[in-house]
Design goal:
Elements lengths: L3 H20 L4 E2 L2 H9 L6 H14 L34 H15 L4 E6 L4 E6 L5 E4 L10 H9 L9 H21 L1
Parallel strand pairs: 1-4
Antiparallel strand pairs: 2-3, 3-4
Helix pairs in contact: 3-4, 3-6, 4-6
């Protein structure tokens, strides 16, 4: 026979077990190709998404004009480029600059997460963190279909000296001001 205090311990352990299981959500690599139609395309006309894209592209090329094709700023990969589709928004080799656009899409799709850039000399990815500070979503538009979520973060953490390139200031500014503006744009 189980005593009342033993029953309370069992119930407490079950509650802790189920709440920790619920909290241990899987880390997700956002699949840009699968989600393009429903989770990306509807936001392409959002002024803050365009502003995020323009900011990143202008940091790379001061002559960038809103509406220019992002893919032309990077290496051009194989396959057909289609305006308004994923191929159009993938400037290969320019992860530090397209990351602002990627984060804007992440904020609109996962507004309850805290968004930060994980960046190093080799790679940058926007990462959404839960209320406990655990990463939940990675928005790696350039490598999502080739790297696991863990590899995207690890690659971005290599050779971490983004302040030497001037990215750190832009990233911190965007995290503090851009994310709030993007969230506000979703309310309009």
């Amino acid at each position: 026979m189980i005593t009342e205090s033993e029953c309370q311990v069992i119930q407490s352990e079950r509650a802790n077990s189920s709440s920790s299981t619920a909290k241990e959500k899987k880390l997700v690599q956002f699949n840009w190709r699968r989600h393009w139609k429903k989770k990306v395309e509807p936001h392409l006309n959002n002024k803050m998404v365009q502003a995020a894209l323009d900011l990143g592209m202008r940091l790379y090329d001061g002559t960038w004009q809103s509406g220019d094709p992002p893919y032309l700023i990077g290496a051009i990969g194989p396959g057909r480029i289609v305006k308004g589709k994923l191929s159009w928004y993938r400037p290969l080799g320019r992860c530090h600059y397209i990351a602002f656009f990627s984060m804007a899409i992440g904020v609109l799709n996962y507004p309850d997460l805290e968004w930060r850039f994980v960046s190093g000399d080799l790679h940058t990815v926007p990462v959404g963190y839960d209320e406990d500070g655990r990463p939940r979503v990675v928005m790696d538009i350039l490598w999502f279909d080739f790297m696991s979520v863990e590899n995207s973060i690890t690659f971005a953490e290599k050779q971490r000296q983004p302040e030497a390139k001037g990215w750190e200031f832009g990233f911190r500014w965007f995290e503090e001001h851009g994310v709030a503006a993007i969230r506000a744009s979703a309310q309009q």
